[in-house]
Amino acid sequence: MKYYELIGTIEGDQEVLFGSYIKGEVEEEKECEQTTLRSQGYRGLKVVSREVKETPDSEVYGETQMTYFDSAQGITITHKRAIKELKDNGVTDLKEFYADLGHHETYQAQAVLAWLGY
Asked: What is the pTM of this model?
C-alpha cells in the first residue's frame, strides 16, 4: 500500500511536512500551504510516495476503500486492455478516444479512466 508525504528542505535538512494514504490530500496540502511554507524557509517541496505494510486506520480514514481510479495509479496497460475498459464502459466509437489520447501500444491506466470520467 502506498503512503504519500509532502517533503521539504529547510536549512539543509529534509522534513516530512504532511502525510496521508490519499495522494489528493497531500497534493492539496502542498497547493494550499506552499506560500506559507516557502515564507518559513522551506524549499524543494514535493509529494513522494513509499510502500508501507500498515493499512490505513479506519478511525482516521473511515471505511473508505481505494477507488478503481486510485488502484490504477502508476499502471501501464496495453492497447487491448484499454479497448476492453472502454467497451466495458459502453464506448463503441473509438474515434474520440484516439483523438484525445492517441493510438498507442500502451496507455497509462489512470489516463484511460480519467478519459472515461472516473
From this structure: 0.52
